[in-house]
Amino acid sequence: MESNANVQSQGVPPPISPPPVISAPPPPKPRKRLWVVFVVVLVCAVVFGVLASVAAFMAEIFAVAGKVPRDGGPRVEEVVLEDNGAVAKIAVIELDGVITEAIVRGGYTMVEVFEAQLKRAAADEKVKAVILRVNSPGGEALAADRISAAIREFQDKRRKPVVACLGSLAASGAYYVSAPCRWIVAHEMTITGSIGVMISTLNYRGLMDKVGLKPMIYKSGKYKDMLSGARPPDEITEEEHAMIQALIDEVYLRFKNVVAEGRKWSNEQSGGEGRALAANWEAYADGRVLSGREAYKHGFVDELGDFKTAVKRAKKLAGVTEANLVQYRQRVELVDLLGLIGPGKETVVKLDVGLERIRLEPGKLYFVAPQFFH
Questions:
Q1: What CATH code is assigned to 76-199+259-372?
Q2: Among 356, 353, 351, 354, which residue's Cα sits nearest to residue 374?
Q3: pLDDT tens digits for range 114-154
Q4: Cα separation of 153 and 184, whole Å?
Q5: Which residues are tagged catalytic?
Q6: Strand spans (E) along the chain
Q7: Is the pTM above the cut of 0.85?
């Protein structure tokens, strides 16, 4: 005690004690984060869904390739063109461009798509009438005949009138499919008519002789190469000409019968309200084109007007005062496009620059206006 007192009395500060040691708190235990688990589950679900979609996609491709049969035909969806708040409907079906049985879209032919649209209109009880909107120079005889037959069958079985509305061009095969309709409307400036049949081939033997090419043809019968372009023209006999002409005449007679029967049926159904064929109508069925006004004069169409006229007439024939206008558009999926790609198939991309001209294939029968082929 004395020594401490002495130290303090001498002005010396007492020794400083070291500060207490402060230890850091232990780190918190990691907590499970639920969102991580959620993300993992979500990723697994997405991967599983993608794999399932790929499997289904590949199955569709194999189906298109023919390894698995596909059911049904062209898929068409209803689109409302004009909503008038009505219960009744009038279906508008477009017949545009060259009439053909070639595949035009989604792996289906124009005829198959047309038949699917008519089938949809037949199945819908709210559809009371159909307007066939035509803008075509004609095309293949067989394709036109199939469409014409489908229209006749639709009207006979479903009792729903079909009104043909002829646009700027409805010639030859396009008129062939319009003839069985319940009523035909044309504009005064519509180009129609051109009733007739043609078959085309190209003789290039003269060119072959100039360049020194000689065809070697082996055939089972003397008429097997009767339409071959490699034959010298002077070797084509009168008998062969007569055979081809007989075929043309047979199909031409069928064309005239379709026109006569269709116009007679239409006139009977309307009680004489429409136009009957003129007594000398066959004189104008020689391949010549007619204006809408000329066609009306000779009884090939029932009424002059436009699309609105056709709608008004369809309502009257269907017995409704108001109706919504609908259209059936083909739904094309990716698998349909892939179905066009495969061994032996060509993929063609076309640029639409207006009405397509017709490239006549040798040996095929055509109902076509001659101004629109090359």
A1: 3.90.226.10
A2: 356
A3: 999 999 999 999 999 999 999 999 999 999 999 999 999 99
A4: 17
A5: 172, 224
A6: 76-82, 89-96, 103-105, 108-109, 127-136, 138-140, 162-171, 183-186, 191-193, 198-199, 289-291, 303-304, 324-330, 365-368
A7: no
